[in-house]
Design brief:
Protein name: Penicillin-binding protein 4
CATH architecture of the largest domain: 3-Layer(aba) Sandwich
CATH class of the largest domain: Alpha Beta
Number of helices: 11
Strand order of the largest sheet: 17-18-19-20-21-22-23-24
Organism: Tautonia plasticadhaerens
Radius of gyration: 22 Å
Number of strands: 24
CATH superfamily of the largest domain: DD-peptidase/beta-lactamase superfamily
Helix content: 10-25%
Pfam families: Beta-lactamase, DUF3471
InterPro entries: AmpC-like, Beta-lactam-related, Beta-lactam/transpept-like, Peptidase_S12_Pab87-rel_C
Length: about 475
Amino acid sequence: MLVLPTALAVLIAPPMVVPDADPDDGGAGLVSRLEEYMEAADAVQKFNGSVIVTKDGEPLLARGYGLANFEHEVPNTPGTKFRLASVTKQFTAMAALILAERGKLGLDDPISEHLPETPESWGGVTIRHLLTHTSGIPSYTGLSGFFEEKSILPLSQEELIGLVRDLPLEFEPGSEYRYNNSGYFLLGMIIERASGSTYESFLREEIFEPLGMEDSGYDRAGPILKGRASGYERVGELVRNSRYLDMGLPFSAGALYSTVEDLARWDRALAEGKLISGESYEAMWTPVKDDYAFGWLVRERDGHPEQEHAGGINGFTTQVIRYPDDGVFVAVLGNVVPEPVGEIARDLAAVVLGLPYEVPRPRAIVEVDPAIFDDYVGRYRISPEMVLEIVREGDRLLGAPSGQDRAELSPTSETEFLVEAVRAEVEFLRDDEGNVTGLVLIQGGRTMQADRLDDTKEEEATPAGDHDREAGDGDEEPDQAG
């Protein structure tokens, strides 16, 4: 099966570009367009989850779609609790900043000051490096066989960090960006040492309770949690329970739960400058490398400053986006993977911002001469960690990253294909002489271009290093652990 480094998404139809809407035409008009979009996402993409859109703290749309539990047919609502996956990271970053303001830690402290058991090779790694994914420490979720062999085990913090402590750094700390769950896991350990409390208790007492986020916390399998969604995966038309994951493993990198309503409260707290000083907020919102700041991707969209993060974990995909200058906030939480949460969130934001957006529509499969498939057979590098292999079997074109089950590519034209099993789209690219030089992959609202590899040379993908970004245009959450 084709599983790529991102929160996966359904494909929309040939794009129907909606003309720029007037964001000032009245609340009723905005609400109508938001509802129209989500009705299409529900009908065409079979979206399953909950959504909230707010303007200056006031909800324009807050609704659940599909089921929180398929066995008992319990519907999703705005109050349904979802695993947040890597949206957790912004709360971990806030906790670190709270402790920094109290003098319990310094952002430029070497992590060995708080975790003396860390190896000597990590001596140049600081807390700031962990916050910005620039530490160079290998990500445990990127280790070969981690999900198959380790993810169901109740590993201690020491055992989990032990998986990477003896590996060499991937680069000099501070010199590069590489998305890294190990770094945020280590931040949770530092928060516990510096505060004298558990990570779970510190966030509850210092963030959730002060902000009135009564439906947020650390997701553990044991306690009865009213309103908790179950996580599922979709394979073709089949929906089945997601694989078990011990929630001690994502920890401060991805183990929190919340509701879209509580996330809207979080957005208002950020807008009002609660919990930390303006100076700390400035640090939190300042990107270091590749647009990544402290637990947030910070950039601009068509002239609108944007702060966002995505997440993906077994059975759940998540996306939050803020447009602070416009007072716009969107949260989309899904409990069936793949789910196009990033695409949906950005389109809903576009409705409110008056930007063009695309309404989901069905897309037709067409017949083409199978002989053309021979042109596309080969290998394509999606990222340093992943190579996509395209093969022909009879009259079918199939593809998958190395080592994964193949999925069929169904043509919508001679160059464009749907991968319906995982809700992706592939377009093959040709040069001026007609040679196939690469492909474009669209999945989860993310567009990725892959160059075709020269199969006369020996080229291998480097070990997977976790998802590369987790962002609303698809950067988030490929690995299933946060």
